[in-house]
Design a protein that fits this description.
- There is one protein chain.
- With 367 residues, the chain is α/β, with parallel strands linked by helices.
- The protein folds into three domains: 1-50 and 94-113, no CATH class; 126-186, no CATH class; 191-363, von Willebrand factor, type A domain (Rossmann fold, 3-Layer(aba) Sandwich), CATH 3.40.50.410.
- The chain is built from ten helices and twelve strands.
- It has helices at 4-22, 24-28, 101-112, 146-160, 206-224, 246-251, 260-274, 295-312, 330-337, 355-363, and strands spanning 41-47, 80-81, 84-85, 94-100, 126-136, 179-188, 191-199, 230-237, 241-244, 280-288, 315-321, 344-349.
- A six-stranded mixed sheet has the order 9-8-7-10-11-12, sandwiched between helices. A two-stranded antiparallel sheet has the order 1-4.
- Helix 3 crosses helix 5 (206-224), helix 5 (206-224) packs across helix 10 and helix 7 runs parallel beside helix 8.
- The longest helix is centred in the first third of the chain and has 19 residues, at 4-22.
- The radius of gyration is 32 Å and the shape is flat.
- The two termini are 43 Å apart.
Length: 367
């Protein structure tokens, strides 16, 4: 039974979630909630939500209609009391609200109108499922097997001579009861792999990396909501590429040039060796400022994408993060060569405000 207090608390939680939905676009462009992420939830600072409460005035301070008054007289307390002046600005009211990542993903889907992802293949991840495999003479009434129970009752009555074909009344007794039995089996689940690649050459600064970090958080949140579990791999590159951990991915900065094909070769090698495409749903996200070493290397990238990478992926996304030092040419080359390819998606990310649009461009395909 739900008490009045629990009902009020649930209603307040719904109000808070409504406030989060209302301001979700603002949260999507800020990186502050990433540091508040737990395993299954995230803490979101929600402003200007006050719990309703009674406020009492000073005793013996008079009330409405007491004493003489003049037009324009203030009805509140004196503006200056005990040498302190009343403030003229509002106080900051912040409430940290815990929201599960699943709830956050649902809000994201509603805000961006995202279609559900349609997984492919069956993988090695599994969940337990009960399967009825036999019959036993003991068990709960909810698992009683009626057909087998009446069969046992009929056999008993025939053997004992109690069965009358002219008046076939079958009445089971306790020893006739039969019950279904079951065992736990492993049911395969779809696997998902996310590969993040990022240009860490000198033209990619801290601001660009923060944009990538924020957008990656929301990508993770959405893809996790569609799969039981995921693998995440990180690749950084300048003139050469290497696989790194998450912390190194977001905090490394090199001063060399940019050779994008080095990252694509490493990504392809990783997928080919460890992630069979008939068992894994593969999502690749590459972020760069669009400044590649040469037109020859760009041609090599296009060939790698057409022949191997894109056919192996559910989705290959290229996000071009604007930098004052980058040429921005690479996205133009991709758009020119992949106009009809639905699994390759490009997006320009000029600043944090563009993350909202970029997420919809990347995730709105339902791949």
């Amino acid at each position: 039974m739900i008490t009045g207090i629990k009902r009020d608390h649930q209603r307040f939680k719904q109000i808070v979630k409504g406030k989060i939905k209302q301001n979700l676009k603002k949260y999507m462009t800020q990186g502050e909630i990433i540091g508040r992420q737990g395993k299954d939830y995230v803490r979101i600072p929600v402003h200007q939500i006050d719990l309703p409460h009674f406020r009492f005035g000073q005793r013996q301070s008079g009330g409405v209609g007491s004493g003489d008054g003049q037009p324009g007289t203030s009805l509140g307390q004196e503006g200056e009391q005990n040498g302190q002046k009343a403030g003229s600005s509002e106080g900051e009211h912040t409430l940290d609200v815990e929201v599960t990542l699943q709830e956050l993903a649902e809000m994201l889907a509603q805000e961006l109108e995202l279609p559900r992802i349609q997984p492919k293949g069956q993988g090695s991840l599994s969940s337990q499922k009960n399967k009825y495999t036999g019959i036993h003479n003991v068990g709960p009434n909810s698992l009683r097997h009626l057909k087998r129970t009446y069969r046992e009752a009929l056999k008993r009555q025939i053997i004992s001579g109690l069965y009358d074909p002219k008046n076939p009344v079958i009445v089971p007794i306790k020893r006739d009861f039969r019950f279904r039995t079951w065992k736990n089996i492993q049911k395969p689940q779809n696997n998902a792999l996310i590969v993040y690649m990022m240009d860490v050459s000198g033209s990619m600064g801290d601001e660009q990396k923060e944009i990538v970090r924020t957008e990656s958080f929301w990508i993770d949140t959405w893809i996790r909501s569609n799969y039981k579990d995921i693998d995440i791999r990180y690749i950084i590159h300048d003139a050469a590429a290497r696989e790194v951990d998450e912390n190194t991915f977001y905090h490394t900065r090199e001063s060399g040039g940019t050779l994008i094909s080095s990252a694509y070769k490493l990504c392809l090698d990783l997928i080919s060796k460890e992630y069979p495409i008939d068992e894994w749903n593969i999502y690749v996200f590459h972020f760069s400022d669009g400044d590649n070493w040469s037109a020859e290397d760009t041609k090599l990238c296009v060939d790698l994408l057409k022949a191997d990478l894109v056919p192996k992926c559910n989705l290959f996304c290229y996000g071009q993060v604007e930098s004052r030092y980058g040429s921005g040419q690479f996205i133009k080359d991709l758009m020119e060569n992949f106009q009809e390819e639905g699994r390759l998606v490009t997006s320009k990310i000029e600043n944090k405000e563009a993350i909202y649009r970029s997420l919809k461009e990347f995730l709105g395909k339902g791949k």
